[in-house]
């Protein structure tokens, strides 16, 4: 390609900037706005003699984060190191909540800088100031919040209690070590057999990894099978939850339940009333109520007579046939007589 042809191509590219469309890092076309945002766009008036793009545009590489850099303040993302109570509205700010904080140096601890972080609380826009403490490797709340006190029991948390500052200073004293050396040796001799047994037990349990893995898999397989059977039985009974296996406590609790004694009687009365009632609508009044009561009494008399006959307390003495008219069906009614 001739040099004149290259010059013509560069001139056409510089004059047609409004329709610019390049290719980004993943091979997709990017617009002119995207190229400018990524600092990949170089305007035609730029030249390498004018330095980088930030210097050419008269801005800092950190953009808005460095707007107070002349005051020694840099905007950073600060993460709350512990749970605190907001000093403005007494709301709790959890550990790990992030803020746009102003970072600046406020002093030195020997050669280590002490930094200050100022931020606004998200609940009431109250200002919170936190400093670093290089001496104790800790953060210190200066103003705007109060650290949440979280005490715990060493035994419940299953942790070790760290010695206090005074105890640590004593451990550095050789005379203190000499005085307590005999007691430490005695404790070591007393606890050494227990430690040896624990070590042997641990070695014996973890000597065969294949057997341990197999046992664990068998246990999980049987547990999954039991859960599947319980879900299947629950679906058969029309339940949406899995039933737990029966236990002796549940059986004893169910045996102690006592229902009302008149439950069966009320149920029979309701069924008799439903059977005796007509399927056709009747006018409301005392007449329909009297008919319903009379039907209930008749049904109760028949039920008591039948039960007496089955128990042997009465026997049929004769049969009476009553005719309801010419050509009508005959109904046999047993007449019960008491045994003497």
How would you characterize the overall build of this protein?
The chain has 340 residues and is of the alpha+beta class. The chain is built from 10 helices and 12 strands. Among the domains are: 26-59, no CATH class; 63-147, no CATH class; 288-322 and 332-340, no CATH class. It has helices spanning 3-15, 32-37, 53-57, 154-157, 165-171, 174-205, 209-236, 248-255, 263-276, 286-311, and strands at 21-23, 29-31, 74-79, 84-86, 92-93, 98-109, 112-120, 127-133, 138-143, 145-147, 314-322, 331-338. The strands form 4 sheets. A 5-stranded antiparallel beta sheet has the order 3-6-7-8-9, with no helix packed on it. Strand 7 and strand 8 form a beta hairpin. Helix 9 (263-276) packs across helix 10. The N and C termini lie far apart (138 Å).
Overall structural class, as computed from helix and strand content, comes to alpha+beta
Terminal CA distance reads 138 Å
What spatial form do the alpha-carbon principal axes imply? extended
Helix content: 40-55%
Tally of contiguous helical segments = 10
* Strand order in space, largest sheet: 3-6-7-8-9
Radius of gyration: 47 Å
Taking pLDDT < 50 over at least 5 consecutive residues as the criterion, the unreliable ranges are 1-29, 317-340
List how many beta strands DSSP finds: 12
Major beta-sheet overview: 5 strands, antiparallel
H/E element order: HEEHHEEEEEEEEHHHHHHHEE
Q: What portion of the residues fall into strands of 2 or more residues?
A: 15-25%
Mean residue pLDDT: 76
